[in-house]
Amino acid sequence: MTDFDSFITGLPKAELHLHIEGSLEPELMFELAHRNGVTIPYGSVEEVRAAYDFSNLQDFLDIYYAGANVLRTRADFHDMAMAYFRRAARDGVIHAELMFDPQTHTDRGIPFEEVIEGLLSAMKQAETELGITSLLIMSFLRHLSEDAAFETLAMAELWLDRITAVGLDSSEVGHPPSKFARVFAAARAKGLRLTAHAGEEGPPDYVYQALDQLQVERIDHGNRALEDADLTARLAAEGMTLTVCPLSNLKLCVVDDLQHHPIDRMLGEGLKATINSDDPAYFGGYIADIYRAVMEARGLAREDLVKLARNSFTGSFLPREKADACLAKLEAFLDTFSDALSDVLSDAKVEKQS
Ligand SMILES: Nc1ncnc2[nH]cnc12
Ligand SMILES: [Zn+2]
C-alpha cells in the first residue's frame, strides 16, 4: 500500500449517505436467495454485475428494488448491514448514518420489525466489534403517496427512540419535496431530524422546496443547486451539509465523467460538501475508493480530503460532543500520519547520504 492509499483509508471519516439496501453485494444476494428459496433472474454473480449498467436513476432503482427481494428475515438485514460495516471499517469509517427504505420491504409483506431489528442488532455488533458508531435514517419512497409515508411513520412508532432522522429518496423528477411537507412536519414534531434527496436529477427548485417546505438540515446530493447562484450562496451561508456521491453521479449519468464532477467547485463555493458511496454494491466502490477517485480525477489536495472528512463529522447527526470526539480522532490521525511521513522522509534522506 502506498502512503497515499494508507492516508486515504486511514483518514477517519463518517459516511452520511448510504442506502443499506444498496450495499447488498451480488455474492450475498445469491446466498440470501438460496437461504430463503427465492429465485433471482440471474445465473451468476458475473451476470448480476453485468446488469449494473445504468442510464439514469430510474434504470438503477428498478434493479435495486428487485435485488432487495431476497431480503426476508431479520438475519438477512443483520448480515447485509454487518457486511457493510466490515467493509466500511477497512476504509476508515468510524461513524455511519444508514438510510433504510421500510416501504421496499413492508410492501412485500416483510414486517417492519424484521427490518429494523436486524439492522439494530448489526449496529450494536458493529460498535462492539469494530468500534463504528451508527444511526438510522428512515427514508420515505417519494414515488409512493403521502398517505403511504404517514403509514410508514406510524409503523415506526415503537422504534422512534432508535431512529434519528427521516429522509426522502427514490424517483426524484415528478415527486417534489412539497408532496411530503406534512409528513416531514409530523416527523419533526416527533423529534426526528430531517434530510432529503434533492437536486440529484431534479431542478434547483426541489432544493429550495427541501429547505423551505421540508426544513431539512441536510441535502442529499444537491448537485443541481449549482445551477442557481443565489441558491448556492444561500447553502454556503447557511452552512448546509451536502452529502455528495461522486461515483453514484457517474454511474447514474448525472455527470458524464468524474473529471467533470463539481466536488471541488462545491468546496470552492464554500459549500459544506461530504463524500459518500450511496449504493456501493451497485456503483462499484466504497468510500475510500471514492475519495481516491475524486482526488485523481479532480486533483484535490490532501487538505481538501481532510476538509471533506471534517465536514462528514460536523455535518453528521451526532450530538455535538460525539462529533467532537470523532474530530479529535481525525486530528490525532493527522498528527501521527505526518510524524510517520516525516520519519519516512528523514530515513530516506539518511539512506541517500550514507
Ligand atoms: N441515488 C439515489 N437516489 C434516489 N433514491 C435512491 N435510493 C437508493 N439510491 C438512491
Ligand atoms: Zn441516495
Compile the SSE list and pairings:
Blueprint: H1 3-10, E1 13-19, H2 26-36, H3 45-51, H4 57-67, H5 74-90, E2 93-100, H6 102-106, H7 112-130, E3 133-141, H8 146-155, E4 165-169, H9 181-189, E5 193-198, H10 204-214, E6 218-221, H11 229-238, E7 241-244, H12 246-251, H13 263-268, E8 272-275, H14 280-283, H15 287-298, H16 302-314, H17 320-353
The chain binds adenine and zinc ion.
Put the structure in a nutshell.
The protein is of the alpha/beta class and 354 residues long.
Question: Which features would summarize this protein structure in a list?
Answer:
354 residues, eight-stranded parallel sheet, zinc, TIM Barrel, metal-binding, alpha/beta, binds zinc ion, hydrolase, Metal_Hydrolase, 17 helices, zinc ion binding, binds adenine
What does this structure look like?
The protein has 354 residues and is of the alpha/beta class. The chain has a single domain (3-345), classed as Alpha-Beta Barrel (TIM Barrel). The protein is built from 17 helices and 8 strands. The chain has helices spanning 3-10, 26-36, 45-51, 57-67, 74-90, 102-106, 112-130, 146-155, 181-189, 204-214, 229-238, 246-251, 263-268, 280-283, 287-298, 302-314, 320-353, and strands at residues 13-19, 93-100, 133-141, 165-169, 193-198, 218-221, 241-244, 272-275. It has an 8-stranded parallel β-sheet. Strand 3, helix 8 and strand 4 (165-169) form a beta-alpha-beta unit. Helix 5 runs parallel beside helix 7 and helix 16 runs antiparallel to helix 17 (320-353). The longest helix has 34 residues, at 320-353. The protein is globular, with a radius of gyration of 20 Å. It starts with a helix and ends with a helix. It comes from Parahaliea maris. It is an enzyme of class 3 (hydrolase). It holds the Pfam family A_deaminase.
